[in-house]
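User: Run a structure prediction on this.
Assistant: Running it now.
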Amino acid sequence: MGDEPLSQILSAVHEIRDLIRLLAEPAIAERDQKLRSELRRIVGRSSPKAKAVLLMDGSHPQRAIQHETGINQGNLSTFVKQLYNAKLLSGDGKQPKLVITIPSNFFESSGNDE
């Protein structure tokens, strides 16, 4: 019972965070323009790779990303190394995490980082 108010506050904080991210997206896009361009260059038009990148939030191990996207293990490993070498990932690569934030429709847009 005592956790209910805390849960409501946490939910409200998450909602506020999401709204701030939405409002800040143009500034974030401008700040991260070079990294976002490099990410688009590496991913290309591949929807499995785009889906894999969207899963690279630090909470999914490579095996889970492979299972979710259907990308061959060797190709995924090579892809992760490319992103790491381009300084787009942090950590050790076993649970890849993008160093920039991107909206969920990032790869659907025309290439302009709105």
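The first strand starts at residue 89 and ends at 90.
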